[in-house]
Fold this sequence. Notes:
This protein is an all-alpha fold. Helices cover about 75% and strands about 0% of the residues. It is built from ten helices and no strands. α4 runs antiparallel to α5 (about 60-80).
Amino acid sequence: ERALLLVDADPDVAEAAVLPTLLSNLAAAYGMRLAGDREHNIAESARLLRRALEVVAIDTDGDTWATVQTNLANCLLEQAQVSDALDHLQQALRWRSRERDPRDWAYTQLHLGVAHERQSRGQPGPDLLAAIDHTHEALEAAEEAGDEVLAGHALHNLASQKLRMAQTGKAPSAEGAALLVEAESHAVRGLQLRPPDSAPDLGGRALKT
């Protein structure tokens, strides 16, 4: 925070390339902060990320811009603003691609899956199907990137999503049984890859330098 105060005190520096990264990293720190009020920390993280979007553009620094879009979406998910979160995640995919960086792309796809699952409220339909599709994309890209922890998150989420789909009773019995088998397989693999103390559906916020 002191670094931000020093930057703000110098008008020539305030618009420099360092500001978006500084704001993004400070926002990430608030997002992961354990001390204090959680709602306040997330609100402060979102405020800093919105400010970062005012001083960074996709044309000048696509990596930072996409990171800010994705991390702001994370904050909005925690604030139950799912529709807005989806908008920011889709914005991030204007820059992120599997070819450019499979890990970053997987991270955004993972959170698109989370957002659609929450929007579905566990009910069958387009959102739950979209959640499964995005999470499959995240898993494949995470494996391509060699990121076992991210792959573990994707497997955990796939298990949850397919279990919900199977439990709705809307799928034919054979299809429901197949979904249960897949959910169990994903859950077992996810436990093998994902640290036991990690968050179940949201990957950590990467600090961009």
